[in-house]
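PT: before anyone asks, these are the final sequences, not the draft ones from last week. 224 residues across everything. Please model them as a single complex and drop the result in this thread when it's through.
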Amino acid sequence: GAGVSQSPSNKVTEKGKDVELRCDPISGHTALYWYRQSLGQGLEFLIYFQGNSAPDKSGLPSDRFSAERTGGSVSTLTIQRTQQEDSAVYLCASSLVSGRGELFFGEGSRLTVL
Amino acid sequence: DAKTTQPNSMESNEEEPVHLPCNHSTISGTDYIHWYRQLPSQGPEYVIHGLTSNVNNRMASLAIAEDRKSSTLILHRATLRDAAVYYCILRETSGSRLTFGEGTQLTVNP
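LR: through. Structure below.
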């Protein structure tokens, strides 16, 4: 596809379960961001990948959250032992060149923790 | 990362110009000024960006103050479809985490 693809688009899970959210960035984009957006709120930065550099994990809210990016392409955000406060839309964005490049966002993965 | 300040909300009438302000007094010389907007139930979409000079594209214009401490996004003729939250953010040339503020909720009245 031409854009950033995220899956699943919707995920309902029970409290305490682990979930994985996937992001397929645009081919060739070296920068990849994960954000979280709770209902009616702004975007909360989670993690940033740039090429082969160590990721900036400073936005991850707890050690239950982790993310990896394999081969500089696909990224997976994992939330362990989900809590109700994890319910949000998780957005992924990628860009070709940092700074000058525009960010392209996916449609997001809506996570509901019951 | 440098911070931006925007009004929480603005209102406009259809087919009138809209000027959305953003203050970024701590901007560094290598920061690009980016604008994105988010329509209801969608991911944010790119609108425009610039470094020092004013910029125009098919969606909007970006006016950057001479000292770069503020900028204004200009929608020349607002339509109902322009109703969205508009975010002004700064991107370092070298790349880094990007912090989105609360943005400006634009309401367009018919």
